[in-house]
Design a protein that fits this description.
Elements lengths: L1 H13 L36 H6 L9 E5 L1 E3 L6 E3 H13 L2 E3 L2 H5 L10 E8 L19 H11 L7 E5 L11 H11 L2 E4 L12 H18 L7 E3 L10 H4 E4 L2 E4 L2 E3 L22 E2 L7 H9 L14 E4 L16 E4 L1
Parallel strand pairs: 1-5, 1-12, 2-3, 4-5, 5-6, 6-7, 8-11, 13-14
Antiparallel strand pairs: 9-10
Helix pairs in contact: 3-5
Length: about 350
């Protein structure tokens, strides 16, 4: 994990000017938010399933959950950049291996709603980079940006909808202040979430208590201007670095703007525990950087596929948490959040 942090910090410093940003881009013609068609899911009542059925589906709602961390999506792969081809490959691989996207809040609430046998994956995008969400001059979504690529994928895979959390540097506005508000509202209309990534992407460890609150409260205030009423209650730490006073990550205020976070996302570098796990710590959630190198997404997806790490597999019922008896001792029943525990 220490190597991953050094790798990330070096990349962050090299790319801190937000590659591909061009201020003052022409305002798109079409201002209608892009909305994706909701996908209807067939869920099962876990209580009606036999132990043999649960065993066959390998149900394990105490397994690991992959929270993927993306920055730029551009033609060529490099530090903090996922190539367009590799991003397309990520979507296809995840789909083929039985993963389906869920929102971070559903994970935090222990309300993962997936069909029987499916595994959750959580997408996060940091920095509000242009390559994540871009419009063409005619107002259409650029098919080469991450959102455009994912939209195209959903046309043939409607059960893999666009569900992600975008951690914004609100002043970056996806590198276009002219349509930043439109983009944030469009993401919300798609069913995505917006998170806090501070105002200036500085190391919070170097700041005073007031400076930390200015970064966190200021970000919430700026997002509120872009899309009034947006719920912002999770934060992705810039460079994975916490402030000296960690209590300020949970709550604080700046110039009348209060903030409260229920989860803090780190930079690396491993899958996250299930919400029922005793190891579940929402204020220190690990993520997996989307890359092919050591401790990257390919590395961990391979380990999970090869059976070296047990992933979360749904019982098809968000109101029931089903786990193998061998893992019962590793679970905390106070994390059920209203769900019924079933052990088989």
């Amino acid at each position: 994990m220490h190597n991953s942090r050094r790798f990330y910090v070096a990349g962050a410093l090299a790319l801190s000017t937000f590659m591909g940003c061009h201020r003052g881009a022409p305002k798109p013609v079409d201002t209608t938010p892009v909305v994706q068609t909701p996908v209807k899911k067939l869920t099962h009542t876990a209580a009606a399933l036999t132990s043999d059925q649960l065993q066959k589906a390998k149900v394990n709602e105490a397994g690991l959950v992959s929270i993927l961390e993306y920055h730029d999506v551009l033609p060529k792969e490099r530090t903090m950049v996922r190539s367009i081809d590799n991003f397309k490959h990520d979507l296809q691989r995840l789909y083929d291996e039985g993963y389906r996207p869920v929102l971070l809040h559903d994970y935090l609430d222990n309300k993962i709603d997936l069909p029987l046998g499916m595994a959750p994956v959580i997408f996060t995008f940091d920095d509000a980079r242009s390559s994540q969400f871009k419009y063409l001059p005619n107002g259409e979504v650029d098919p080469t940006c991450a959102v455009g690529i994912w939209q195209e994928f959903t046309k043939t895979h409607p059960d893999f909808p666009i569900k992600a959390t975008f951690y914004l540097l609100p002043d970056a506005g996806f590198c276009s202040t002219a349509d930043a508000s439109k983009k944030v509202k469009a993401l919300l209309a798609m069913g995505c979430e917006i998170g806090n990534h501070t105002v200036t992407h500085t190391s919070l460890k170097k700041l005073s208590d007031e400076g930390v609150q200015k970064e966190l409260g200021g970000c919430v205030a700026m997002i509120e201007k872009l899309a009034p009423g947006t719920k912002v209650d999770t934060i992705a730490l810039p460079m994975g670095i916490s402030p000296v006073n960690k209590k300020l990550l949970a709550e604080g205020s700046y110039q009348g703007q209060t903030y409260a976070n229920r989860a803090v996302l780190l930079v690396g570098a491993e899958p996250a525990p299930a919400p029922i796990s005793k190891r579940f710590k929402p204020m220190r959630l690990p993520r997996i950087q989307a890359l092919d190198g050591p401790s990257g997404s390919t590395f961990y997806l391979d380990k999970i596929k090869n059976g070296q790490m047990g992933r979360y597999i749904s019982d098809g019922d968000p109101n029931t948490t089903t786990i193998p008896s061998s893992l019962e001792s590793k679970c905390d029943k106070t994390h059920l959040n209203g769900a019924t525990l079933r052990v088989y």
